Amino acid sequence: MKSTPSVRPELPWLRAFTFTIFGTSVLVSSYFPLFYAGLGFSNSQIGLLYALGPMISLVANLLWSVASDKYRTIKKIMLILLIGQMIMSAVLSVSTKFSVIILVITIFYFFFYPVFPLSDTIAINAAKRHKKNFITVRIFGSIGYAFYALFIGYVLSLIGSSRTMWVAIGIAAIALAITLFIKDQDSPVAKMDMSGIWGILKQKELLWFFGCVFSLAIAVRMNDAFLTVTLNDLGATEKIIGWAQLASSLSEIPIFLLLSLYGEKIKELPLLVFASLMFATRFLLVGVADSAYSLIAIQLLHSLSFGVFYVTSIRMLTRLIPDHYRATGMALYTIVWSSASGLLSGTFGGVVFEQFGRHNFYLVAMSFALLACLGFASRYFYPGPRLRVQAADRGGVQPTKAQTASSASAEEETLSN
């Protein structure tokens, strides 16, 4: 279908929206921990607050997905989510007690996490109508993350980290205004095919893959939760923290492009072994770093660790799982990589950081990464039988291409940085 002049602006508005919402992602992942630290919370308390997000995302994504499907609207739900974020950010800005913040941040996460899969879905459908590649919209999320990583750092260096929540309100307000110009769509977000879970979990090779991913995910989520705290302990200002996040977000772009062009020429397992080893090296260097500026340089390893891992793991997952179980497999992958690992690493990691210090904390993270490296390597040198799908398991519902792409792109947001 050809684009008419009346609908031509649709993609630019979606690009602007995608660019903007990743500003809140920067705040949640990088600057919320500093806000908590400024309130005097301990590292174990910060870890618990971080762990709440992945746990709430499981429930929130499901409920808002059902609501989107039932009422056949994405735009109206997006407006509700952004207004909810603004209200909860305002409440957080005046809250100081841990018991109050743990309640309010839980509600905030309920409005925060579903924005990304919903925005991916509406962008996928729009790109398909205009015969464009979805990545032409999604790439603006990566650009937005890089921009806001630096911009927010400079802003907070001027106004102070105590006003972090007011920045969150401002970004959500901009996204809310842009949403008014986005065309609504009634396509539901991708759902987990419950009938296919058992068929997937019976595959030993896939269980091994998820086990390796889970081990690596614990290490990665430990770093995510306490990187900004580490930078702060080393005397980093908000500006330096912004540069560190900028370095990691920009470094992944060339790797994504290279692997999209030439990645198929290399088998998945060697790449996964390499990526896990790079993660282990990265965490070891962070643990022994003695200055904030050295951490900026170490962040460049994000390209060789996360960049290689993300593209390769998704590629391998699509080969391990039959097409009619694809949406289910991607949902399980999200749980393993983001939700379950985030819950465990936030609570467990906070205690380790507080009781044993930064150096030992990152040694533990390095150990989990090395365990994943050994797991991938063992499968490479001692391959087992290839994945087989029983005929009886082929009763699952075939997901649409949009559903599959939505699951993958939503997972990319969760993983990024």
Description:
The chain is an all-alpha fold. It has one domain (10-415): Growth Hormone, Chain: A (Up-down Bundle). The chain is 78% helix and 0% strand.
Q: Short description, anyone?
A:
The chain is mainly alpha-helical. The chain is 78% helix and 0% strand. It contains 15 helices and no strands.
> What is the overall number of helices?
15
How far from one another are the termini?
36 Å
% residues in beta strands: under 5%
Average pLDDT reading: 81
Number of E-type strands:
0
How many separate structural domains?
Answer: 1
Provide the helix percentage: over 70%
What is the CATH superfamily label? MFS general substrate transporter like domains
Query: Per the principal axes of the C-alpha atoms, what is the gross shape?
Result: globular
For this structure, the CATH topology is Growth Hormone, Chain: A
Largest sheet properties: none
Class derived from helix and strand content: mainly alpha
Any idea what the radius of gyration is?
A: 21 Å
CATH architecture: Up-down Bundle
Low-confidence residue ranges = 1-7, 387-417
Name of the CATH class: Mainly Alpha
Helices and strands, in order, run as: HHHHHHHHHHHHHHH
Keywords: Cell inner membrane, Cell membrane, Membrane, Transmembrane, Transmembrane helix, Transport
Pfam family, one: MFS_1_like
Protein name: PPP family 3-phenylpropionic acid transporter
Main location: membrane
Notable traits:
417 residues, mainly alpha, Growth Hormone, Chain: A, 15 helices, 78% helix, 0% strand, globular
